Amino acid sequence: MKYLICVFIAVGIISCTVDYNPNANFLDTQNKLIVNSYLSPQHKIEISFYSTFSNNNISSYRAEKNINVLLKEDDTTIYNGICTDSILLLNYYPKAGYTYSITASVNGLDQVYAETRIPNPINCSVSYASKYGIINLRNFKLPTDNNSMWITANYLLGDTVSHVYYEYITNCLLVDNVNQSNDTYYRNEVLGSNYCDGFMRVKASNVQQLDSLLFSDMYHLLNKSAANYNGIRVNITTASSDYDQYNRTYYQQASTPPEDDINAMVYQPVHVYCNVKNGLGIFAGLNQSYYYIYK
Amino acid sequence: MKEHRTLLFILLMLICQRAISQKELIINGVVSEQTSGEIISNASVLLNNTGVSTNNYGHYSFKLKQGSYQLCVSKVGFTTSKEEIVLTRDTTINIALEQGVTLSEVTLSAKQIKSKGIGDVNMDMSLLKITPLFLGEKDIIKSMQFLPGVSSGMEGSSQLNIRGGTNDQTLYLMDDVPVYNQNHTFGFLSIFNSEAILNAELYKGGIPSIYGNRLSGVVNVSLKDGNYTEHHQSISAGLLAATLELEGPITKGKSSYMFTVRHSLIDLFYKGILFINGNLDSYSANLIAFQDINAKLSWHITPKTKLSWQLYNGFDDLYVTNKGYSMDDSKYSEKYGQGWSTLTSSIRLTSNLKPNLFLTNSIYYSNLNNSKYGYQTENTNSIEQKKSAQLGEFGLRSSLEHKTSNNNTLLYGIDASNQLYSPNRVFEKRNNESRNYKSDNLRLLTTCAYISNELKFAGWTFTTGLRASMFNNTEKTICTIEPRLKVSKFIGDNNKLMFAYDMMHQPIHSIYEMNYSIQSDFWVPFKENSLPVSNQLSIGWKNYYFKDFSVSVEAYYKKMQNLISIDNLENYLDFHTDYSVGTGQSKGIELMLEYSKNRLSTSVSYALSKSERSFNGYTYPFKYDAPNSLSSFVSYETKKTKIKKNTFSINVQYKTGYPYYIPILKYPGSEPISSFNPQIDNIPKYPNIRLKNYFRTDLNYTTEKKLRKGSRAWQFSLLNATAQQNPYTVYKTKNDKYKAFVLIPMLPSISYTRSF
Hints:
Chain A is mainly beta and 295 residues long. Chain A is 12% helix and 46% strand. Chain A has two domains: 29-119 and 243-287, no CATH class; 123-238, no CATH class.
């Protein structure tokens, strides 16, 4: 998007942003039940509930309690009852290859339904080259189902997972464009300058072609000191279609707030994916693999 | 006995003479412009009470009995030619018309002939000189956007959304070659350089069977051949770009050339400043560049056969570039950007095989390439990376126009094309090692045969057509039959009733038509089992009672089926999933009033329409649905002498605001993206508001002066003179306030043209 700045300089000088009354009837907007949950074999089932409400024509949301919940694993019921808290926490780990569904309802709001499948994990081998802090992922073992892959990394302080890599430089052209830009003015002779903001995503059809992927934290490449860390954790997330579409569209919406006239000109409304029927939120399966590299 | 034989002989001679005098003779020829020799299409040719229009190649023909006739040839903007002829044998008469006379000189019959019928608009190219400019650029597409039933979509775009259809449902042709992207700088101007255009035609309905593969409309732009008699040059410059045009004879009267080049000014100015300051080795810049080149060579091999070669090459490039020296004194340069390029080329042979038989053959190539790229060099190391989507098409066309009688014209022909799509090419080169990642290549093979017959009888004109097509995408083959019908009838001398029916299929579609994105076009062929199809009925009435005034009303109803709505673009392209099939419906009434007398010309158009889509059982308004749309254009020549002409014009447009999406509800998001923004604005899948009604007034003042050598013209425009705040995008801020971005609060433009 920054490439467009010079296109519109002349027009941007005389264009403007003004207050706008959309004449939308907010009172007619029906409030909805919100379900947020990621299901992965690495974590217990945790589902959060909220509901929307309007106050003086401003929409907001609040935690919702006393939800009737029916949770199934394929055709087997694993929870059926009233959740008195806004978070349902079960001592149960989802399993890869299974489909999970939720039906939830509360007084005054429409009943909602969602389902998702837990994908089988993508695994690989990980090595580390200390010069430039380059991490090399290769020898990918891909399951038969087509899933996208999301890659993030964290620094380790002792045994604690510390701050996440905020910015990535990678050599791999198969990494998605959605959060890429090339105007950081940083180049690396090994990696090039494919900069990714916050995560790296490889879409399902490109995962099949992946043989290796090199990346590093831009912070490290700029020789800013990260001497306190004693290791890195690489997170490979095998994403279900629900997780993938949700996060990709969420990023598209989150990364295009019109901060100024130039961005406002290229703004377009992005509908964030939601698989909760009659409601809002996300109920998505994923499978995470962690790889630890110590100094 | 002898007397009987004499009588018999005389009788025989009389019969023969009678037979000879009854034999029909053919008169034909080409109508062209006197100074340049360029052909004039759609000129009215009258021989006593019989009239025809010249075809797209300026050719006409009649079958008449021996005798004396008055041949009258006319077209708006040209002197009427009248001459007496005596027809004794088949004759070829080529007519040259001189430029520059008003509509009032055109006879009523000529006007009636000129009106090709319902849904067909021939653009008056002379209006481009006085129509308000966008950033100093004359643009034929922007002029078409003011026609009733035609919408630009977003303001500032070069789209033509015709009668409830999207832009990818409009077929764009440049000298009969399909063009797949008509935008420069994301639509601020179109790729059609007005200096290179001879004429332009738009079909909204009553689409001839020679055209197909799009649901909603056809834009056919014909390029100039170049001046056959004299060399001419012109330079023009606006705020955005500069154009150079060269044309002239290679062999006088026989062959000609035409060449135009247009280039953006921003990047040229910037690089010029760097050059002057000696900074070309070290700088950083965000720039935009675009360029287009039109070239054409034409050769009249014989008086009846013409060969022409045409080329168009254009590109747009938005990029960031850095050049300099690293801390260790190593020289580096890098360039990252995105852009697209269009290339078309064709060879066309037109031949008057017989006086009433006209043949056109052509072969063509058309290419569209969208890419995102990065180049990086440092000392001896280099990295080149590119992600691109490409469409290439190679095609053949052959058509025969056979005038079987004055009242009957048969047109038939075949088209064949092979399209190759590479929607996902990924290429990398590091030093000398290159790699092409696997990319799905898609193919579409199209073969069509069409026939059309125009029959005139007792004031009625029946044009029946049939187009049969076969589309093969390597996985499946779909055959289609498309009937076309146009009927018109004159009621008295002054009223014409018209009716048309079109069926159209579309085997390809553009991906970015699905949203409001201003990204460039990206095409894919069909994969579904059924093709999108439209059926359109149109009726119309046109009145010519007053010499200087015409009024026409058209009503239409269009039903579209098997339309595609893509829920997840990636999955649709990679796995052919996550899409819906639905329908569309569009209906409307269009009114057009035109008046022109002496120095004043005006037109008013109004359209009352409704367009909607239905997917998954839900019906919602089409994204560019504007139930009321009014346009008005007035021009007045404030000064007109032999050497100087000044024209003031005003253009007013009003239309209902488009359907739009705004967020109302919000809810919490989940990691990892919630670290960017913790909450999500729920933007619905279907429009939930209408933007405020659109209103814009544009002013233009053009001053033209003939000089000793050539001429010069200044054009001053002010778009949105009333500074109406028309919303371009609407969004919600972090403190829950709504804001609208206004693209053109008020935009002055200036353009200068010097011709030699």
